[in-house]
Amino acid sequence: MNAPYEAVALERLPEPSVERAAEVNFAYLDERTKRMIRRAILKAVAIPGYQVPFGSREMPLPYGWGTGGIQVTASVIGPDDTLKVIDQGSDDTVNAVNIRRFFQRTTGVATTTRTVEATLIQTRHRIPEIPLVEGQVLVYQVPMPEPMQRLEPRETETRTLHGLAEYGLMHVKLYEDIARYGHIATTYDYPVLVNGRYVMAPSPIPKFDNPKMHMNPALQLFGAGREKRIYAVPPYTSVESLGFEDHPFEVQRWDAACALCGATDSFLDEVITDDAGARMHVCSDSDYCQSRQPAAGEEA
Amino acid sequence: MYVAVKGGETAILNSYRLLADQRRGDPTQPELGVAQIREQLKLAVDRVMTEGSVYDPELAALAIKQASGDLVEAIFLLRAYRATLPRLGTTCALDTARMALERRISATFKDLPGGQVLGPTYDYTQRLLDFTLLASGAPVVSGDAVAAGSAQPEATPRVVDLLNQEGLIETRPVPPGDPAPVDLTREPLRFPADRATRLQNLARGDEGFLLAMAYSTQRGYANSHPFVGEIRLGQVAVEIVPEELGFVISIGDMELTECEMVNQFAGSKTEPPQFTRGYGLAFGHSERKAMAMSLVDRALRADELGEAVLSPAQMPEFVLAHSDSLEASGFVQHLKLPHYVDFQAELELVRKMRAVAATHHTPTEEAAA
User: Fold this and answer.
1) Residue B360, Cα to own-chain centre: how many angstroms?
2) What 3-state DSSP class applies to A260?
3) pTM for this one?
4) What are the chain A neighbours of B341 within 8 Å (beta carbons)?
5) Contact indicator for B174, B181 with CB cutoff of 8 Å
6) A109, A119 in Cβ contact below 8 A?
7) Whole-number average pLDDT of chain A
8) DSSP helix/strand/coil, A80
9) What SS3 state is found at B214?
10) Cα Rg, chain B, nearest whole Å
């Protein structure tokens, strides 16, 4: 068992305030790098779902922790933007806090936790429950941009398959799931067909979120820093989750409602509440949940 | 009762302070200076410079201090610093034949022009803990060494060039037009990757990974019969031709370790039997890295030389996509990030699959499983 923790760590710090650091360029990246990334983004928007290679830089945060999303955000953010950063649906998880702090320090832009107020939202693993609107930009952090990587690890091969729109491999995988389990055993990062052409990894969002991508009025940008790829779904683009006529795509459902706000239409996380394994369900999207709790608006 | 997860920012700020305390250690001990690290932990500094792709011993030493001696973390710090630096120009190709040698050994010839120079090496130390260092005493061996480079000729020909005179070793002529190599720090790695690109990747690659890959080629996971043609360590002039001057000027020296590995090659339809080459180059004194790099470089040429590609070390996508310590460390450690949502999705799936399984099996079967 661990020794009791000394109080050093718990000493109250003043309310954290973040000031714009003057010694780095706006949004950290130099303007030439931003231009290179913007060119990749423009190409990605022009060819929805196509993975554009780009000269991903070593960022001051580790690969695998959102460097692709950070570089995309850094390239599109302007002084008038209002930024929201979420991780697993929540604004308050440490990685979301860390990335938000990074942009506060390097841009000084306004930040928010409210989906409706944000012009730019960087996300890991969720799409907000409140529908996005025209003019908003959703930036996804992507660990594995290649949807077929687990089936064919060689990039030279998958590139050819995309070029030929040869997606039999993926359909066979989904079919084998049905043959073995009676249903498709993919629950997140569920492959989608974008604009009727490219099969795309939606990043590890739960498949619950997949339908939100379809014909979304917002611009959806995907950044994979470690794998050095950018791709995009422009506003009002068709995004179809793969399935079969007799085994259509379907999303997760819960028998429970959110214990805090009573929502039955949101993605719920299970929280274990005692040693006996008692559980409760709460919304994964913390902004959605709080906005539905009229009296509980104040900080807990 | 569930409390919404709040206070991440305060936790992060507290972790910075705890980390600073951990780095400093016992405050009654004198603090380690960056200059001490630079001078007394040279081999660590050299590794950080090599994999960090920045030749700057002072910044590498700073990174090591800041990272509490975690070299992969130090490499990360140096790379992140490097990413924002402008690229001012391109140097001339380094001429390692004109290296001021501190060490030069060949395993293929007993003696050769320029001679064998053992130089500083742990190779023939007997690995006994030297307790005089613990007692802060003078090292066991004292007295001034004879400076190796004192009586050297202007240039020492490379062993591979000597073999070349007999036509026994492949030649690698400069391709027509001498095209500028891809800069992997500016452009993404694409496959198939040419040799210049592969060598850049290996030079930045994690020493431990390359060592294991190289080792695998010696244990049957690739067809390799390597000999150390030559390892040399020393100072090389870095030269540029400024556009406005039009002639070569030296802007300083850098210490390098170079390894030329010589491999047997049985010949192919177009090439007679001859020796082939694997190449390794690292900043500072980094022999293990340079040797491993040269073995992996040679193994990655299997396709080009018409050899069967059967082993991981011969597969460019396997080696090059996994060699970078930043990419590997970042992605492995990202598993520490919350995955509540993904896990929740999997939890639902496993419950669903168990429910289906329970309706198909008798309870005894399930207990056995």
Assistant:
1) 54
2) coil
3) 0.87
4) 88-89, 125-126, 188, 204-206, 267, 269, 284
5) no
6) no
7) 90
8) coil
9) helix
10) 26
User: What is the C-alpha separation between B165 and A5, in angstroms, rounded?
Assistant: 71
Give Cβ neighbours of residue B359 (< 8 Å, ≥ 6 apart).
none
Which residue from B334, B325, B329, B328 is spatially nearest to B52, judged by alpha carbons?
A: B325
The predicted-structure confidence for B178-222, as pLDDT tens digits, reads as follows 888 899 999 999 999 999 999 999 999 999 999 999 999 999 898
- CA distance linking residue A141 with residue A139, whole number of Å: 7
Please tell me the predicted confidence (pLDDT) of residue B28. 96
What does the alpha-carbon distance between residue B25 and residue B178 come to, in Å, rounded to a whole number?
A: 52
Tokens of B148: 């190796």
Q: Is the pLDDT of residue A3 over 80?
A: no
| Total residue length of chain A | 300
Cβ–Cβ gap A300/B76 under 8 Å? no
Q: State the smallest CA–CA distance between residue B279 and chain A in angstroms.
A: 25
In 3D, which of B110, B78, B283 has the Cα closest to residue B185?
Answer: B78
The span from the CA of B151 to the CA of B28, in Å, is: 48
Cis ω before B192 (30° cut-off from 0): yes
pLDDT band at A67 (very low <50, low <70, confident <90, very high): very high
State the average pLDDT over residues B337-365.
79
Radius of gyration (Cα) for chain A, nearest Å? 20
Q: Residue A211, exposed/middle/buried by CB under 10 A (0-12, 13-18, 19+)?
A: middle
Half-sphere exposure of B137 (CA within 13 A, CB side): 9
Sheet holding B249-265, edge to edge: B100-105, B226-240, B249-265, B274-283
Interface touch A143/B331, C-beta < 8 Å: yes
Find out whether B50 and B284 touch, Cβ atoms under 8 Å: yes
A258 is an active site residue: yes
Output the CA angle A267-A270-A273, nearest 5 degrees: 150
For the residues of A109-131, what is the DSSP string, one character each? Answer: -EE-S-GGG-SEEEEES---SSP
Q: Residue B267: pLDDT above 80?
A: no
| pLDDT band at residue B361 under the 50/70/90 scheme | low
Whether residue B79 lies within 8 A of chain A, CB to CB, comes out as yes
**β partners of residue B323:** none
Residue B365 pLDDT > 50? no
Distances (CA, A) of B176 to B173, B179, B352: 9, 8, 63
Rounded to two decimals, the ipTM of the complex is 0.82
pLDDT the model gives residue A299: 43
Report the alpha-carbon distance of residue B56 to residue B254 in Å, rounded. 10
Alpha carbon of residue B27 to chain centroid: 34
**Rounded Cα gap, residues A10 and A6, in angstroms:** 8
Looking at A66, A89, A223, A289, which residue is catalytic?
Answer: A289
Active site residue A289: yes
Query: Token pair for residue B195?
Result: 């040799």
User: Which residues, other chains included, contact A187 with Cβ-Cβ below 8 Å and sequence gap of 6+?
Assistant: A206, A207, A252, B342, B345, B346, B348, B349
Mean pLDDT over residues A153-181, rounded?
94
Token pair in block for residue A239? 């995004």
> Per the CB < 8 Å rule, is A284 touching B331?
no
What letter represents residue A211's amino acid?
P
